């Protein structure tokens, strides 16, 4: 029982660690971005039974469609087999490389799949970093004139599958007709043992759709959908993402056929390859930024259009330099010795992609690429940046670095980039500024000393004038003329007990005490006092209630507001006139919002309060 528990525990750990390994491996593979070349061999069963299962020769048309649709860095080959080998086309590239020989294919004889697969595997090169695939189209199992020949072909087929697996060749099998309805048939071993795939005509779609699934879903060839049309004819306006493309292919496919395909464009070279159910417009170095395609279909059927764009490019690094002074030493350290400033140095990069052919200095400088996120590598460190204004901005510290090496992961785009990289740039930051010799500041200090003395005299005069404000004070209601009084000689004493009787929002404000004794003589506002007491009433005229120190331990209250009402006892204070308030007298204020009301009681300090 314990051993069973240990087994389950071990399996649980494996299951938990497996996603971590998958994520790590995926992260590592994300930066295997160099575009790999490819080789595809199409293997066609041309036995006599194909006359019944492919009467319209749609398999041949589908092979031409796939061969014309692959990128320029792929080579295609072809093998046709029946009793023996009917036709062989070595690996080559270019527009419609198999067109002429495919048209001469004849369906006759038996099905020697072993010899056909062996011949297909022999066509591949031995180059490294090449993706290799076989697309096999057949309608039946291996069948030969006698039992010995049949067994020999089966054995050769099995041995060749092993060779294909060792060489990393994936086999995709397209089963046509109705005879290949058993997934366990021997012919399907080629797909299962090489991590390929099996497609049944009808069940997996028609031959046009199956070829597209193999190219774009299984082989992951780059493409971008540019339109789907319905009807018995039409046109497409296809815009090229960025000027400077090396090759552009526009692929049109239709289930029921497509005819009379024409295209308007300007390019160094151009070619249209067409079959019964497809058409491929191929351009080299297009000068126009769009292609207008016109076509007809014999029936009311849909046409799907894809575009493949290839660029040959290299990264471009524009560098600007900046420096930041290191935080200076403490004042005590500065006084000991004169240390020159120390700087940290930075490089601000703008990374773009340039067309090697010289047609376009910045392939990303179009709205199509704006805002796209691109992984890139600087000196071995991977980052992710967003294209803005045609460039990826990036900043880094360059202290201790002599050059930069930059790579771009272009595999995230729908277009195919053949990028020459990494690119390196020598760093050449400007030299740091040299401190100038210490000048003799003694004459300047003498001048500054004189200026400081003059400024001090002016400030003393200003301060004296500020604190000797002259106000007009009304002594009593019976006095017709106010008395002119200077506040310089007066000082504050006592305290204010502040009571907010009512507020506009109905909230309660606790009573506060504000001590006047010991404060600098001079002008104060009620707003300053309320702020000190943390009483917030809003801008309702409190800043216009002015307070001065008065004689005989009094304070002078002056109302300079527009709509406040200030009472000394029962007497309303006139605007702009000072009124003395003595100990135990009360000031009542109704503020400009006509809702907030406050009482201020002026009181003497107890001896204990004076000491504190």
Automatic annotation (TrEMBL):
CDD domains: vWFA. InterPro entries: VWF_A (IPR002035), vWFA_dom_sf (IPR036465). The chain crosses the membrane at residues 444-463. Residues 39-214 form the VWFA domain. Pfam families: VWA (PF00092). The keyword Glycoprotein does not apply. Keywords: Membrane, Transmembrane, Transmembrane helix. This is VWA domain-containing protein. It comes from Clostridium boliviensis.
């Amino acid at each position: 029982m314990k051993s069973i528990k240990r087994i389950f525990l071990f399996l649980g750990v494996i299951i938990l660690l497996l996603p971590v390994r998958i994520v790590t491996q995926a992260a590592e593979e994300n930066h295997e971005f160099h575009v790999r070349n490819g080789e595809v061999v199409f293997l066609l069963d041309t036995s006599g039974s194909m006359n019944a299962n492919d009467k319209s020769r749609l398999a041949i048309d589908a092979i031409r469609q796939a061969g014309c649709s692959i990128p320029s860095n792929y080579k295609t080959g072809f093998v046709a087999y029946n009793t023996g080998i009917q036709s062989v086309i070595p690996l080559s590239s270019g527009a419609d490389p198999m067109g002429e020989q495919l048209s001469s294919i004849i369906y006759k004889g038996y099905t020697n799949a072993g010899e056909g697969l062996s011949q297909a595997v022999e066509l591949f090169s031995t180059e490294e970093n090449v993706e290799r695939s076989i697309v096999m189209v057949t309608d039946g199992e291996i069948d030969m004139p006698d039992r010995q020949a049949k067994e020999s072909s089966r054995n050769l087929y099995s041995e060749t599958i092993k060779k294909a697996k060792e060489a990393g060749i994936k086999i995709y099998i397209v089963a046509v007709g109705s005879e290949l309805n058993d997934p366990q048939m021997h012919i399907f071993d080629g797909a299962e043992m090489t991590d390929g795939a099996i497609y049944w005509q009808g069940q997996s779609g028609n031959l046009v759709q199956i070829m597209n699934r193999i190219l774009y879903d299984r082989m992951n060839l780059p493409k971008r959908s540019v339109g789907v049309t319905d009807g018995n004819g039409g046109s497409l306006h296809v815009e090229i993402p960025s000027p400077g493309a090396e090759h552009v292919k526009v692929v049109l496919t239709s289930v029921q056929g497509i005819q009379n395909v024409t295209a308007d464009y300007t390019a160094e070279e151009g070619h249209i390859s067409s079959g019964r159910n497809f058409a491929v417009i191929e351009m080299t170095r297009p000068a126009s930024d769009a292609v207008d395609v016109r076509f007809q279909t014999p029936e009311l059927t849909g046409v799907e259009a894809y575009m493949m764009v290839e660029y040959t490019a290299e990264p471009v690094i524009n560098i600007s330099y900046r420096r930041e002074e290191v935080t200076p030493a403490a004042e005590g350290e500065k006084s000991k010795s004169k240390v020159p400033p120390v700087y940290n140095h930075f490089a601000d990069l703008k990374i773009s992609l340039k067309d090697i052919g010289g047609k376009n200095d910045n392939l990303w400088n179009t709205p199509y690429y704006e805002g796209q996120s691109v992984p890139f590598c600087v000196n071995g460190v991977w980052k992710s940046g967003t294209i803005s204004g045609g460039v990826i901005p990036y900043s880094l510290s360059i202290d201790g670095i002599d050059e930069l090496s930059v790579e771009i992961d272009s595999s995230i785009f729908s277009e195919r980039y053949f990028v020459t990289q990494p690119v390196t740039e020598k760093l050449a930051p400007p030299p740091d500024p040299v401190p100038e010799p210490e000048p003799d500041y003694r004459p300047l200090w003498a001048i500054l000393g004189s200026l400081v003395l003059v400024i001090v005299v002016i400030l003393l005069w200003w301060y004296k004038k500020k604190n000797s404000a002259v106000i007009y004070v009304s002594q009593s209601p019976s006095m017709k003329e106010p008395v002119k009084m200077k506040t310089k000689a007066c000082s504050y004493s006592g305290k204010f007990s502040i009571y907010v009787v009512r507020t506009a929002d109905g909230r309660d404000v606790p009573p506060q005490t504000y001590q006047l004794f010991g404060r600098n003589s001079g002008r104060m506002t009620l707003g300053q006092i309320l702020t000190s007491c943390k009483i917030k009433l809003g801008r309702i005229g409190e800043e216009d209630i002015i307070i001065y120190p008065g004689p005989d331990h009094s304070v002078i209250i002056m109302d300079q507001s527009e709509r406040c009402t200030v009472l000394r006892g029962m007497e309303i204070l006139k605007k702009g006139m000072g009124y003395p308030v003595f100990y135990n007298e009360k000031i009542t204020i109704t503020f400009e919002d006509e809702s907030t009301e406050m009482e201020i009681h002026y009181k003497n300090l107890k001896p204990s309060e004076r000491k504190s």
